[in-house]
Design a protein that fits this description.
The chain is mainly α. The protein has 16 helices and 8 strands. About 45% of the residues lie in helices and about 10% in strands. Helix 8 runs antiparallel to helix 10.
């Protein structure tokens, strides 16, 4: 299989370079073919058209209803045609999942699209979990796989997308532990904020106290910050040095900044170097600051403090865990973190035995307030030595 390839003029000869596989399962190699000389192909456009004709013969890309296609071929087509419209971050993430986990999956890589049924997808799910992927990661990879199959079906290819309700997914009991490993602890957050210098210090405060993503921090402008009212309007992000739309519709929100963040923003406003776009963080040329700049500064600071290296997203995790420890309502957490669904928010929640006991005690107090006290006869029966309430009975 090949990618789009590129045309190069070498002396008086036009050549096409593209990547082709030696055999199924082996790594691709770059090959070249002679398209013609400058007398036959008088311009680069003519050479490109000749290259397109060659590639169309070597690896047809036109899709027809009912067409049978190999899974590996569809992976390449989907990546080239459908991921190109996504933002850089989403495109890079999904491209990595396709190349590393979907195209190379043992359960899928040797099959044609029409042979990928529920049994095959279930085998893929089990393979991913057995390889050590967390349950949430397995679900994310399955979601992309299902999207790819649905797109193929919409294009008229011979494929039947599987139904999620007929599949079995692993349960991730270790999700809270893995999230805590990615998050900075309260003590680490305090030490980092004390040692950091602006603009990194203010950027960290935005992630720690408001849960902003790195791209949202770099895209934040003063016109979206109400210092008098203590409000932040999250409405854009910065990627590749340019202002772009947010990750999703749910990412847009107006948040009330906690007191420590308001203090930090006022201090940064006084020391802020002005830029034409009015951004909180800008490069020397006035473009939005690249998140990698803040990330490198953070890594140097973590090395000086002897704190394990993590990214700016570790402060967003710390923000969510702090709300969970404070007993925040899960829906309030979801809105504060601007998650699309409560399932994403649930990875920050845990329930120790004492939490369950406290919840039941609160329910009992609420029941008493509604006049559900037991009668003396009921209390006597419940306190009798031989009385046992078994799970699953109607007692």
């Amino acid at each position: 299989m090949r990618s789009a390839g590129h045309v190069r003029r070498e002396g008086r000869v036009w050549r096409l370079y593209f990547r082709a596989a030696r055999a199924p399962g082996q790594r691709r190699r770059q090959v070249s073919v002679r398209l013609g000389d400058v007398r036959e192909l008088r311009s680069a456009a003519a050479a490109r058209r000749a290259a397109d004709r060659f590639l169309a013969r070597a690896d047809p890309r036109e899709l027809h209803a009912g067409m049978v296609m190999a899974w590996s071929t569809w992976c390449e087509i989907y990546e080239a045609r459908h991921l190109a419209l996504l933002a850089r971050g989403s495109r890079a993430t999904r491209s990595s999942i396709i190349r590393c986990h979907l195209a190379a999956a043992p359960a899928l890589r040797e099959l044609e699209l029409h042979r990928i049924d529920e049994a095959v997808v279930q085998a893929f799910i089990l393979e991913q979990h057995a390889a050590g992927a967390a349950a949430s990661t397995v679900r994310a990879r399955f979601a992309l796989l299902r999207t790819m199959l649905r797109t193929a079906a919409a294009a008229g290819l011979a494929v039947t997308p599987p139904r999620a309700d007929r599949l079995r997914f692993p349960r991730d009991e270790a999700a809270p532990a893995s999230i805590r490993a990615k998050a900075f602890t309260p003590a680490e957050c305090a030490a980092i904020l004390e040692a950091a210098q602006d603009p990194l210090r203010t950027a960290i405060a935005l992630a720690r106290f408001a849960g902003l993503r790195a791209s949202e921090i770099c895209g934040l402008g003063w016109d979206a910050v109400d210092l008098a009212g203590g409000l932040l309007e999250i409405r854009q992000q910065a990627l590749d040095g340019a202002i772009r739309p947010l990750k999703s519709r749910s990412s847009r929100a107006t948040l009330r900044a906690p007191a420590p963040l308001q203090v930090r923003l006022r201090a940064w406003r006084e020391a802020w170097p002005a830029n034409p776009a009015g951004l909180l963080f800008a490069a020397e040329d006035g473009a939005p600051l690249d998140a990698d700049v803040l990330r490198r500064q953070l890594h140097r600071l973590l090395e000086e403090l002897g704190i394990p290296r993590r990214g700016l997203h570790g402060f967003r995790h710390a923000c969510a865990l702090a709300m969970a420890r404070a007993g925040a309502n899960p829906e309030a957490m979801r809105r504060a973190m601007r998650h699309a669904g409560i399932r994403t928010t649930s990875i920050y929640l845990s329930a120790a035995p004492e939490d369950v006991a406290a919840a039941l005690a609160a329910a009992a107090v609420d029941g008493d307030s509604m006049g559900t006290e037991m009668t003396p006869t009921q209390e006597k029966r419940l306190s009798a030595p031989h009385t046992v309430i078994r799970e699953g009975t109607n007692a």
